[in-house]
Amino acid sequence: AGGPQLFKEGYKNLQGLEEVILRNIAATKEMSEITRTSFGPQGRNKMVVNHLGKLIVTSDAATIIRELEVVHPAAKLLVMASQQQEAEAGDGTNTVLIFGSELLQRAEPLLRMGLHPSEIARGYEAALVAALEGLETLATDSVGSWNNSNEVLKAVRSAVAAKQYGQEAGLSALVAEAVLAAMPAKDASRFNVDNVRVVKVLGGSLAQSRVVHGMVFPTAPVTSVRRAQCVRVAVFACAVDVGQTETKGTVLLHTAGDLLAYTKGEEAQMDAAMAELHEAGVGAIICGSGVGDLAIHCMNRYGMVAVRCPSKFELRRVCRVVGATPLARLGAPTPEEMGYCDEIITEEIGGDRVTVVRQCNDDRVRPAFAARVAASPLSTVVLRGATVNALDDAERAIDDGVNVVKALTKDPRLVPGACATEMELARLVHVAADRTPGVAQHAIRAFAHALEVFARTLADNAGVDSTALVAMLIAAHHKEGGKPMGFDVESDHEPCLIDAQAKGILDPMAVKQWALRYATHAALTVLQVDQIVMAKTAGGPKLPKQQAGHWDNDD
Known about the structure:
46% of the residues lie in helices and 16% in strands. By secondary structure, the chain is α+β, with helices and mostly antiparallel strands. It has a six-stranded mixed sheet with strand order 7-12-11-8-9-10, sandwiched between helices. A three-stranded antiparallel sheet has the order 4-14-17. Strands 5-13-6 form a three-stranded mixed sheet, with helices on one face. Helix 9 links the parallel strand 9 and strand 10. Helix 4 (93-113) packs parallel to helix 17, helix 12 (420-435) runs antiparallel to helix 13 and helix 14 (453-462) crosses helix 15. It is elongated. The relative contact order is 0.18.
């Protein structure tokens, strides 16, 4: 059907088991092999240079697949599923890639035996239902109170350890402190991950990182006044400077008096604008664009603090903290547009000066106009580190920890980690396969075997015998009344098992649920493709390479 009479010239038409399904399975396998070695606490780092030439060194699967430009359609489906997992749960992206690929690899021998893709799909769907039902019974703990730092710590420790193994104690404590400061008092489900910010200050070590209650700008104020307390705040999205004309103009000056009078108009205009702000009671200005020298001079005269905030996202956050409305014109704001701040202070961290904007939670008497501004829920983690890459990786670990907290505010249940949950689910799915008549039991059993991939991957990355580990875990989970045994990543040469619950290695149930769903649905989508029709890439011929040197040179 794919002859030249049916399609335009340049179309590719692939169909059949060998050309489509097995090729797709091979592509997804190659995709998962990239991120599989980065799985778990002992995962290796990847060095990725993106299309802009930026170097990224990380073991975070979400970052790796975001920077890689995957073009194969089947591999792209897995990538899209893992990106959806990142958006939904904030963690478990590598789990989706590894498990989705393993399901497809387990389906390959079944396809070669003669099973139809639809039969395998039915078996996988039945196995997914059995796995999700089994997962509901495995919850061993839950987060009882969001006001208790120990409860938050046990929830985020595993997520942080997967990215920064060895540093998880310090980073988890930072995440717990920041989350407790940003958590809404009444309804934890309204927790906003945007209220926990990260500011990276180069230098020092990770142990010197700390949490600041309030918003931190990684720059000092542009004015000579560095501190203000209990002040009204004006936020400008435009530049605080003298207006420039859109077209070029020529000014003819005849005398020295003309030259002196030329700048006086601008000075008078800026002075009038700053005087208007001062009379309105504004003591601090936060600007989203440039601040001119003349404006800085006038602000210093009136004793105002000015801070530059070049990012529009940061500007929105600071408006939320101080309760202000960003203005698009230079002028005095109305009382409704003005914000209020308890304290703006310049602090020194390492060799860098930073500006902290905070609303204090103490009993200080606030002016009447500040009643509408709540105590700031925003907290900032100030990270210290020797290199930019180390700081970026620590930031990703903190983001994962905060996202896990967000997932747990919706469903606070926790399940044992260290592959204990996956191996128990494999046992439960095996039991379901034994009860299932017909051809579907082969696919259900393949699903159960695919769940063992996580233990094998953790063992391979830790440098121990994966076959021996899987055998030990299967034996431990088939014992009557056994504990939730998992893999000890600190085992030396020989695999060792630990009680994940007793060691406090816990994962959010919601992350596992979404990962199983997304991986299975992505694998089923790839499996049920039987034909690929690809059009010729749009665009004209490529331009010839320009020769070096000037075109006019004869050589």
